[in-house]
Amino acid sequence: MLIHAVMTSPAIAVRPETPIADAAKIMLDNHISGLPVVNANGDVVGIVSEGDFVRRAELRTERKRFWLLDFLTSPGKLADEYVLTHGRTVDEVMTCDVVTVKPTTMLAEAVDLMEKHHVKRLPVVSRGKLVGIVSRSDLLKTLTRYLPAPLSNAKDREIEAAIINELAAQSWGRGGSIRVKVVDGVAELSGGILDERERLAAKVAAENTPGVRAVSDQLVYIDPLIGIGIV
């Protein structure tokens, strides 16, 4: 899946000279937690988010250190912190090193970038200009479209076969020790597992199968050292 299929477009953006009070109001009014910052030419020059407004002099939430640590901290770092807690315009508090993606970037690559750089949103740029933004909320909206919906007309045997096939496709479930029986849409999981984590994984596999109304966990943990089942 490509970014252009899930991104929000057009993206709401602000200019570097925008007062932070205005930027905060835009976020609140539009129920968003971050804004790309673009210059007069439409180039992305930064991003500002709720996190940039957490340490503020007005809130008396400036970072406080033990006097010795404060003494050992470089004047430059202290100056940077002062700007962040007292700055009045977006360009004074924004993050300048912005990670961006293209509309043709694969969604999986964008998620990798979010995790790698610890960011919640990525501006989408085409030919150097902002064309959209993709955030965690966009991923959630897309996810809801793909989550399987229960199928009331699915037959028990078909549901049972689908769960067995899903378990067989997973490396943790290929041992064949998990048995499946479906009656009136209720999937009963029985048999033995050698790792407790397999219990939840098997339950999730069953829950994700269309037609399953409920899951009955009858699995027994077998201690691999002594070979005895523990209920």
Give a verbal description of the structure.
By secondary structure, the protein is of the alpha+beta class. The protein folds into 2 domains: 3-145, CBS-domain (Roll), CATH 3.10.580.10; 156-230, Histidine-containing Protein, Chain: A, CATH 3.30.1340.30. 34% of the residues lie in helices and 21% in strands. The chain is built from 8 helices and 8 strands; from the N terminus they run αββααααββααββαββ. The chain has a 4-stranded mixed beta sheet with strand order 5-6-7-8. Strands 1-2 form a two-stranded antiparallel sheet. It has a two-stranded antiparallel sheet with strand order 3-4. The mean pLDDT is 88.
Summarize the structure.
Helix content is 34%, strand content 21%. With 231 residues, the chain is of the alpha+beta class.
Question: How do the strands and helices of this protein lay out in sequence?
Answer:
Layout: H1 20-30, E1 34-38, E2 44-49, H2 67-72, H3 75-86, H4 90-93, H5 107-117, E3 121-126, E4 129-135, H6 136-146, H7 156-168, E5 178-183, E6 186-193, H8 197-207, E7 214-222, E8 229-230
Parallel strand pairs: 6-7
Antiparallel strand pairs: 1-2, 3-4, 5-6, 7-8
Judging by the overall fold, what is the CATH architecture of the largest domain?
Roll
Cα distance spanning the termini? 43 Å
CATH homologous superfamily classification of the largest domain: CBS-domain
- CATH fold-level topology of the largest domain: CBS-domain
Query: Level of helix content?
Result: 25-40%
The residue ranges in which pLDDT falls below 50 over 5 or more consecutive positions are none
What would you report as the Rg, rounded to the nearest angstrom? 26 Å
